[in-house]
Amino acid sequence: MKIAVCVKQVPDTWAEKKLRAADSRLDREAADGVMNELDEYAVEEALQLIEAQGGEVVVVSMGPDRASETVRKALSMGADAGVHIVDDALGGSDAIATSAVIAAALAGRGFDLVIFGSESTDARMSVVPAMVAERLGWAQLTFAQKVEVSGSTVTIERVTESGFATVTAALPAVVSVVEKINEPRYPSFKGIMAAKKKPVETLSVSDLGLESAAVGAGAAWSAVNDFAARPPKAAGTVVTDEGDGGVKVADFLATQKFI
Ligand SMILES: Cc1cc2nc3c(=O)[nH]c(=O)nc-3n(C[C@H](O)[C@H](O)[C@H](O)COP(=O)(O)OP(=O)(O)OC[C@H]3O[C@@H](n4cnc5c(N)ncnc54)[C@H](O)[C@@H]3O)c2cc1C
Questions:
Q1: How far apart (Å, rounded) are the C-alpha atoms in residues 105 and 166?
Q2: Would you tell me which of 4, 29, 42, 206 could form a disulfide with 115, CB atoms 3.0–4.6 Å apart?
Q3: Pick among 3.90.79.10, 3.10.25.10, 3.40.50.620, 2.30.30.100: CATH of 2-219
Q4: CA–CA gap between residue 13 and residue 193 (Å, rounded)
Q5: Which residues fall within 8 angstroms of residue 167, CB to CB, at 6 or more apart?
Q6: Mutational pocket test of ligand 1: of 128, 136, 181, 224, the residue with most ligand atoms within 8 Å of the beta carbon
Q7: How far, in Å, CA of 27 to CA of 48, rounded?
Q8: Per-10-residue mean pLDDT for the chain, 259 residues long?
């Protein structure tokens, strides 16, 4: 079985994120880049499938030069090879362009399964897996809390508001996973050393047969017109209990329309 895992480098989850005044884009240099947390679960799931059934895991990432660190992290966890799509023309790409680039990188490479995280922690659109599935013409099984591959089919437990639904599709298929599907492993020292020797293919937009004009900020279907910093937290209301604390709290909740 040949599995691709799509991983995105995002600013550290805990770092304060800022938009740049000059172009209203996320200031990615202001924080360390890390692998999108949900994508760690995607890598782990692919590794577990391969460990059980044999095969190969290829990690795919679109991002600037430093996104190669995220590709290496997936390799140090145990993925076999990487594909890094890096091109100045890609800066400011929206989800439509991102999905076109990723789909072009996946097509024709003999993948049985492509695993995504279900959303990125920076843009949080949660649409790229569905868009890639549509572009490839493959079934999409999203929000998986459990994945099983048997013969030429994949079955997932798809998280719903009331529980989960069991969904099956023929391979090749696209799966996105939710947090808690597994416990992502930490790269071992041996894994980190081995990752240095694993192959990483670097591709540009033209290598994928796409036009530079079809990606990047100029081709984005949406634009940030305006933004403002979140207002600082207001001071809380202190209720001094002078024997009537309960009444005061109830009054406060009523004025806030909580009760
Ligand atoms: C006007 C506008 C300007 C923007 N400008 C920029 C910009 O300058 N720079 C920038 O980086 N982003 C920019 N973005 C955000 C960009 O659109 C999103 O990064 C992109 O659409 C992917 O969406 P997402 O991150 O919300 O992915 P989601 O759909 O939330 O991601 C789901 C999964 O898809 C996969 N995935 C997503 N992106 C990648 C990737 N790049 N490589 C591999 N796998 C991936 C991962 O597995 C991820 O868990 C901009 C968005 C808009 C609307």
A1: 29
A2: 42
A3: 3.40.50.620
A4: 26
A5: 141, 155, 156, 158
A6: 128
A7: 35
A8: 98 85 85 95 98 98 97 98 98 96 98 97 93 98 98 97 97 96 97 97 98 96 89 85 92 91
- Which residue ranges make up each domain of the chain? 2-219
Question: Which whole-number Å values give the CA distances from 136 to 44, 164, 171, 172, 184, in the listed order?
Answer: 24, 26, 12, 10, 28
Angle at alpha carbon of residue 73, lines to 185 and 42, rounded to 5°: 55
C-alpha 138/C-alpha 8 separation (Å) is 21
Q: Which of 219, 128, 209 has the alpha carbon at shortest distance from 175?
A: 128
Query: Distance between CA 57 and CA 74 in Å, rounded?
Result: 10
Which among 212, 218, 209, 220 has a CA at the least distance from the CA of 104? 209
| Rounded distance from Cα 217 to ligand 1 centre (Å) | 12
Measure the CA–CA gap between 181 and 102, rounded to whole angstroms.
Answer: 24
Name the residue with the closest Cα to ligand 1, atom 5.
Answer: 92
In angstroms, what is the span from residue 37 Cα to ligand 1's centroid? Answer: 14
Residue 253 and residue 259: Cα distance in Å, rounded?
A: 6
> Using an 8 Å Cβ cutoff, are 62 and 39 in contact?
no
